[in-house]
Amino acid sequence: MKRTRWYLLVVGLLISLLAVGCGGGGTESKQSGTVGDQVKHKIIGIDPGAGLMKATDKAIQEYELKDWEVVEGSSAAMTAALAKAYENKEPIIVTGWTPHWKFAKYDLKYLEDPKKVYGDAEFIHTIVRKGLKGDHPSAYKLLDNFNWQPADMESVMVAMQEGKEPAAAAKDWIKNNEETVNKWLEGISTVQGDKITLAYVAWDSEIASTNVVAIALEKLGYEVELSQVEAGPMWAGLASGDADAIVAAWLPTTHADYYKEFEGKFEDLGPNLEGTRIGLVVPAYMDINSIEDLNK
């Protein structure tokens, strides 16, 4: 009798193992086959023409990912696809950058880039039009003083992602960080209704920083207009004088082409945020660590 029970136990265990191996569900089954097969050889991108997209096209060539496709879209479409995949523990590869709220909400990792296609750490610069210092010295001084940390930017982005309007999220951050903001404003003369136009791209990071700077300028008495455009028109508008400033220039890689194209037609006030990064991003549950692994 004891042998019969033992035999039935072993048979039952084998049947269970076979069921799992034949597609019994779970995260592991969703990640069978090569990484390329799992994601249908697609990398979910953002806006066509963005520096991150150009770098990804270069990565496709440098790493000889012949069967791979970069899907154009937008920042919002990319994060929506990531959220859906992450919720279902499905594999996905997206173009990503830091700071971004997705790193605070999800457990993600960058794929290693041994060929340095995406470059090293990036910086976000403040760029102003020629002549701004003479026309609006108070705005120029504030823009030159503006500097914050990735954690600051991410806190505004998370508030926005959770449903707050950008202006409201920015006001809350300024209220909770008066010491930092007062350093930006220290010794600057106020004005009465002078108009300033800030241009920005529709990335959550740049929506956050531009709204924060806009409210700081309003504290000085400026009437601020926000102009949301694509990256190319943003730089062109700055060079032509249609926009007064941007706090959204990712350098030296992401916006390198625009910087070179319009060089001499703007003034670079230097980084307002250090410690940024761009590259290919995957959920931490995926068994892949390097871009080189995409060919396996």
TrEMBL record:
Keywords: Cell membrane, Membrane, Transport. Pfam families: OpuAC. GO terms for cellular component: ATP-binding cassette (ABC) transporter complex. Its main location: membrane. It comes from the Bacteria. One of its GO terms (biological process) is choline transport. It is found in: Cell membrane. This is Substrate-binding region of ABC-type glycine betaine transport system. It comes from Desulforamulus reducens (strain ATCC BAA-1160 / DSM 100696 / MI-1).
